[in-house]
Amino acid sequence: MIVVTGGAGFIGSNFVLDWCAGTDEPVVNLDKLTYAGNLANLAALEGDARHEFVRGDIGDFELVRTLLRTHRPRAVLNFAAESHVDRSIHGPGDFIQTNIVGTFQLLEAVREYWGMLEGEDKAAFRFLHVSTDEVYGSLEADDPAFRETDRYAPNSPYSASKAASDHLVRAYCHTYGLPVLTTNCSNNYGPYHFPEKLIPLCIHNALAGKPLPIYGDGRQVRDWLYVKDHCAAIRRVLEAGRVGEVYNVGGWNEKANLDVVHTLCAILDALRPRADGRSYREQIAFVTDRPGHDRRYAIDAGKLERELGWKPAETFETGIEKTVRWYLDHQDWVQGVTSGAYRDWTLRQYGA
Ligand code: NAD
Ligand code: TYD
Q: What is the pLDDT of residue 43?
């Protein structure tokens, strides 16, 4: 079996759902259920014996130690993190705590567990760390896309904390021989994306008749990857990645933020036209820029394709249409998140 951390969040829950759709190998899901963790994402697995949910913190060494000894996983995949750049600007403390200290404690527990394994079990064990392209910093318009060998130059408290966690993971391999794999991925989008991030926020605000906030001039560029493609890349790296290696994961889909929002508006205009017949584009509002806003991210995912044969299945056009349709079909999920109802349930289930 495998252990996934942060499996009630956006990417982690997509990963767990796809994992269970593709194999009978059980998964234990350790998640603290911060504001970003939502068990409603995993409703399809209710009563499914292959999925066990454990509420807890990756920084809780004793809890993780017990969990590993009890379940004896063949791999631990670390998705758990504080993940929103804007929140890291307003309050970096949680980012330092979970992304750095939490990853450290998790690594310590995993190191102890791995040290107790023997023979085939020890040789086959993997720790896969899910990270971001933001650790590489910001690119100029005509710079080549990020490669695995690029220098780290994180600019936000979020990316700095992820960079620190990547360094710890690397050091545990180099120093202790822990068999680690690291993936650095570009911006994801798709089902169960918390509506504080650009794409789900704009879909939600558009339908609610609210402004679509564009930071600065909206010409910042991100590479976008459909979340299911990211999950497939992680499965492939887990299966065949070389120990100690880093793999960049991206969609070959560089888009300026304003173009992304224009695309969303066009799809919504077609699928759910405004009552007054005008375009959702009229709701676009340029707002104050994010401090230290990185201008451009771009990923060269060539290594992953050459070495492990992974390529994204979705283009931006197919993925974004699927995403908008998913949000239109799952307004109850959006309602649960935006009203905070999912938090009430967590409170009833687990207490404060
Ligand atoms: P998310 O914020 O949606 O989910 C994070 C999950 O981790 C939540 O379920 C939360 O409850 C849980 N969590 C937070 N702190 C925890 C702790 N101390 N112990 C246990 N669980 C904890 O994030 P996401 O977008 O799903 O990102 C998942 C991972 O992928 C992160 O490591 C992030 O850095 C990385 N990543 C994200 C993107 C993206 O576009 N979203 C891109 C590249 C990499
Ligand atoms: P976001 O989804 O927060 O991801 P990240 O900061 O990790 O790239 O933001 C994506 C881009 O969209 C980023 O350049 C910031 C911008 N943005 C806006 O213009 N308006 C918004 O309301 C948000 C949330 C983001």
A: 96
Distance from the alpha carbon of residue 351 to the mean position of ligand 2, in angstroms: 32
**What is the 58 CA–ligand 1 centroid distance (Å)?**
12
To the query of whether residue 300 is one of the catalytic residues in this protein, the response is no
Ligand 1: which of 3, 18, 34 to mutate, most ligand atoms within 8 Å of CB? 34
The two three-digit tokens of residue 304, written as one number: 């992953």
Give yes or no for residue 164 CB within 6 A of ligand 1: no
Spatial CA neighbour of 116 closest among 103, 127, 125: 125
Q: Is 111 domain-assigned?
A: yes
- What CATH code is carried by the domain that includes residue 62? 3.40.50.720
**Looking at the domain assignment, is residue 347 inside a domain?**
no
Q: Is 131 a residue whose pLDDT tops 90?
A: yes
Structural domain that includes position 18: 2-189+226-251+296-313
Structure confidence by residue, pLDDT tens digits, 176-234? 999 999 999 999 999 999 999 999 999 999 999 999 999 999 999 999 999 999 999 99
Vertex 10: Cα angle to 44 and 205 (nearest 5): 105
Provide the CB-side half-sphere exposure for 78 (13 A, CA).
33
Would the pTM of this model clear 0.85, i.e. be above it?
A: yes
Among 158, 198, 289, 297, which residue has the most ligand 2 atoms within 8 Å of its CB, making it the best to mutate? 198
Domain count, the chain: 1
